[in-house]
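A quick aside before the break. I want you to see a complete sequence-to-structure record at least once, exactly as it would be stored in a machine-readable document. Don't worry about memorizing anything.
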Amino acid sequence: MTYKQKDLVREAKIKAARFCSYRERAPTEVREKLDGYGLLPDQQERVLSELIEENFINEGRFATAYANGKLRINKWGKIKIRNGLQSYRVGEKCIEQALNALPEDEYLSTMLALMKKKQAFLDIADPYVRNHKVAQFVISKGFEPDLVWRSLKSDS
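That is the input. The structure line, written in tokens, reads:
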């Protein structure tokens, strides 16, 4: 490896570390970023593995932060969170751990708040049609259909 290549790798690692330092990142995000720095594939993998060793990148930590953020900020359910994590090519084990780490009471209260808000917005007299619209909305946010329908039935 020439001096110029070593310098390029060092610069890419510094930039990637900075990229990882202000928000949790998935390894795929960092790999895409490294692609733009003009590194060879083996150089990219070396930089990526060094960042993982130095704990700049942690797939489990990313999955947990992603899941918590999507629940609290975007009001997403577990199905939509799972799909989002899969799009980042996060491992199934990390996805399961992140979803299981979501506080169940917060998860349910978020779902119920969405349902209540949607019900207040709808001006439909027929309770079956109204419940269908509410369920359709909350399910589209990624909440489990059986959980949604159970909650709607218990409210009736």
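Two observations worth writing down. The mean pLDDT is 92. Residues 60-100 form one domain. We'll return to this after the break.
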